[in-house]
Amino acid sequence: MLLTAGGRRPHVPMEKVAFEGWLESVSTTFLALSDQQRNQSLDHLISLSGAAQLRHLSNRLEALLKRDFLRLLPLELAFYLLRWLDPQTLLTCCLVCKQWNKVINACTEVWQSVCRDLGWRIDESIQDATHWKGVYLKAKLRMKQLREEDAFETSSLIGHSARVYALYYRDGLLCTGSDDLSAKLWDVRTGQCVYGIQTHTCATVKFDEQKLVTGSFDNTIACWEWCTGAKIQQFRGHTGAVFSIDYNDDLDTLVSGSADSTVKVWSLSTGTCVNTLTGHTEWVTKVHLQKSQVESMMHSPGDYILLSVDKYEIKVWPIGCEINCKCLKTLSVSEDRSVCLQPRLQFDGRYIVCSSDLGIYQWDFASFDVIRVIKPQQDPSSLSLLGFGKVFALLFDNHHLYVMDLRTEVTVGRWPLPAYRKSKRGSSFLPGVTSWLNGLDGKNDVGLVFATSMPDHSIHLVLWRENG
């Protein structure tokens, strides 16, 4: 027998036919073994293997054990599985390899879903997954800013020489009415005063492109022309201060709520009183004119509805051509008048929302049933409603603004406020842009968030900070 210098037999390759026969025999025997015997056999073979065999074994095992399931699955099934992952895991998966990044970035529904979870409004017509991934990253940053009190910034408007009693915001413009017998129109973006006209002491204001309508502590209402400052109409008839007004040009109707506990309906063009609505026993601090969007036994979609609010009740009135207008419904949160309503109201034609000392109440306008009561983490009696949407609500107390996620009723952001004058009538503070309350979209989180009058006669503004 021939031996090598080390005393080992030289390696002589087995003939192909003999090798194939041997391999078949070994395979048959191996398959007949138990799992434990198979493992022992493999351990023995590994111990006999050299570097070339171990390297070969490693390469083959990696391919067998680390199969890329995302690459092997049909794309529809891969998308379905990805929808179960949380956003952070999805972003981590994007780093695994180019193929995973490509698949995940192509899944539009996944990114739309995580955006929706953050309170983002989704445009279903946009099917570009890369777009929605970018929106998610921007949304994630904005929500982080809200949590860390970094989403907003502040500025001031200075120009009045006496207390500012009334504020109204529309399309980037803020109107202020003051005890200095003037009303001013400001561009919120630039902080510049666009118009300034001499008026009476304004308790409430509302404007459009051509005119300004003011309600006053002198019991009158006036309509002014912006470009000339001229008074073009005056409305006399209330015997108490006028705290709230609303109007509709198409109806030629103006409505007003007063400290004399009445609501008056006026012809906007002639200044004549069409009707006086009675039934309130407290100051009427808010009137709101709006089309109904739902149907009930009392109203149909398209009918104009007037809501009026005092300290304890919300009254619902039909507004039309009829003179004898009767109250359709009276809403309250306590029969014995033990619970006060806050001087804010929201009505979009479908739901009535008002905050109270017990929490935020939401009524369904079709049935007038209370469908929701939200009791914030903060003391409800000190909290006021600014805006209520499908996704978020904007609230505030003496110290902070609060952004609440209405799906969880959890505060997701807040912002500190300076010491300000909180009017019991709710006219010296107001929200700005409110479309984001129905869901952010990366475009509506700009502009004014909140405004209030300050003891030094300035107006304190809270604005969205630019999202990086």
TrEMBL record:
Family matches, as Pfam families: F-box-like, WD40
WD-type repeats, residues: 157-196, 235-276
Keyword Acetylation attributed: yes
InterPro entries in UniProt: F-box-like_dom_sf, F-box_dom, FBXW2, WD40/YVTN_repeat-like_dom_sf, WD40_PAC1, WD40_repeat_CS, WD40_repeat_dom_sf, WD40_rpt
Domain F-box: 67-114
SMART domains to which the protein is assigned, alphabetical: FBOX, WD40
The entry's keywords: Acetylation, Repeat, Ubl conjugation pathway, WD repeat
Purpose of the protein: Substrate-recognition component of the SCF (SKP1-CUL1-F-box protein)-type E3 ubiquitin ligase complex.
The protein's assembly and partners: Directly interacts with SKP1 and CUL1.
Full protein name: F-box/WD repeat-containing protein 2
Lineage of the species this protein comes from: Eukaryota, Metazoa, Chordata, Craniata, Vertebrata
